[in-house]
UniProtKB/TrEMBL annotation, chains A, B:
SUPFAM superfamilies: Thiamin pyrophosphokinase, catalytic domain. Residues 27-129 form the Thiamin pyrophosphokinase catalytic domain. Its EC number is 2.7.6.2. It is an enzyme of class 2 (transferase). Pfam families: Thi_PPkinase_C, TPK_catalytic. It comes from Bacteroides acidifaciens. Keywords: ATP-binding, Kinase, Nucleotide-binding, Transferase. InterPro entries: Thi_PPkinase, Thi_PPkinase-like_C, TPK, TPK_catalytic, TPK_catalytic_sf. GO terms for biological process: thiamine diphosphate biosynthetic process; thiamine metabolic process. Residues 136-204 form the Thiamin pyrophosphokinase-like substrate-binding domain. It comes from the Bacteria. GO terms for molecular function: ATP binding; kinase activity; thiamine diphosphokinase activity. This is Thiamine diphosphokinase.
Length: 208, 208
């Protein structure tokens, strides 16, 4: 059963809006290792924190921080990936597998879409990564899985080619959705629910 | 050629974050007909505007507004659609075809995903609908199309089953992408670009 207890080995602070909800903020606060995408580093540092690594060319850093933190700026030249993925690849190389991403959404919507959909690719690489936003948790899943929930919890399922989708413990029936919106706005009935299928999908567990 | 000149016959103010960018605000200001989803109506009214219709059960309205605007609250009982789609269906029935949606993003990310992906379904219904956010414009497209752009403009293409994707006038090559992120973070080279393909896709034209 997948539940909210999730202690990541490392946390990525991505280039979206800085988190405001207590849960992503606490995950960031308690992180054992923090990789900042460089667009997020200024705010993280100015709030009194020190990242373990800054991923990017450092060009988004203030001149002062750029000098002070030059030793931890890690540049990855790859036009095929975005900064979030560069941070994931860096952490993967360091041996981290269980990662939380915060600050990945809330600015340009195409970046939001990209960052969320990448969870599917990370799963294929054997990584266990969750994106924690101000509104809930996104995770990628392969096949049948049971999730802890609370009655009335808002649940959205976004299909990435899964077949035979059936629900147990959700208000609205699932089917082999072909468009994203079709699996949104579902709701947990009780303390757990199960999704039956083969193949991959994203799930969003809202905090409410 | 698709360009920025877009005078919608009606505007939907959806339940996400109230727009802050001048372009969606101007579209809302100049709208000939405004349909407010009821979660957005309080703020629209308190800013001194009067919607032409409020779509929803009115439960999100303040008690004062609920009484004052009761005559324009239009309730559609349908558990299969969200408020944005209810507003689209209402406007379609009134004969509107060319619609701008503002305020559709910026809160719960699953709602953002749902609202954006619905543009594909609206296109299948013969509607011409654009979502204008604080960062750019989303539209649904079927087949080969040329778009007006400016050099360096950020462009993202999200594939909904289109085949034979090829670009003309973009920095990075297109292919038949299978995951959302693969078509993000492209860039226009000059004043126009063309996407060649058969089938449907979403395009995001950033303001920058």
């Amino acid at each position: 059963m997948i539940n909210e207890d999730y202690t990541p080995e490392a946390v990525i602070l991505a280039n979206g809006e800085y988190p405001t909800h207590t849960l992503p903020l606490r995950i960031l606060e308690e992180a054992k290792f923090v990789a900042c995408c460089d667009g997020a580093a200024n705010e993280y540092i100015s709030r009194g924190h020190t990242p373990d690594v800054i991923i990017g060319d450092g060009d988004s850093l203030s001149p002062e921080y750029k000098e002070r933190f030059s030793s931890i700026v890690h540049q990855i030249a790859d036009q095929e990936t975005n900064d979030q993925t560069k941070a994931v690849l860096f952490l993967q190389e360091k041996g981290f597998r269980k990662i939380a991403i915060v600050g990945a959404t809330g600015k340009r919507e195409d970046h939001t879409l990209g960052n969320i959909s990448l969870l599917i690719d990370y799963m294929k690489e054997g990584m266990e990564i969750r994106t924690i936003t101000d509104y809930g948790v996104f995770m990628s899943v392969n096949g049948t899985q049971t999730f802890e929930s609370h009655p009335g919890q808002q649940i959205s399922i976004i299909n990435f080619g899964a077949k035979g989708l059936k629900e147990e413990g959700l208000v609205y029936p699932l089917s082999d959705f072909t468009n994203w919106w079709q699996g949104t706005l579902n709701e947990a009935i009780a303390d757990e629910f199960t999704i039956h299928c083969t193949g991959e999908y994203l799930i969003f567990l809202a905090f409410v």
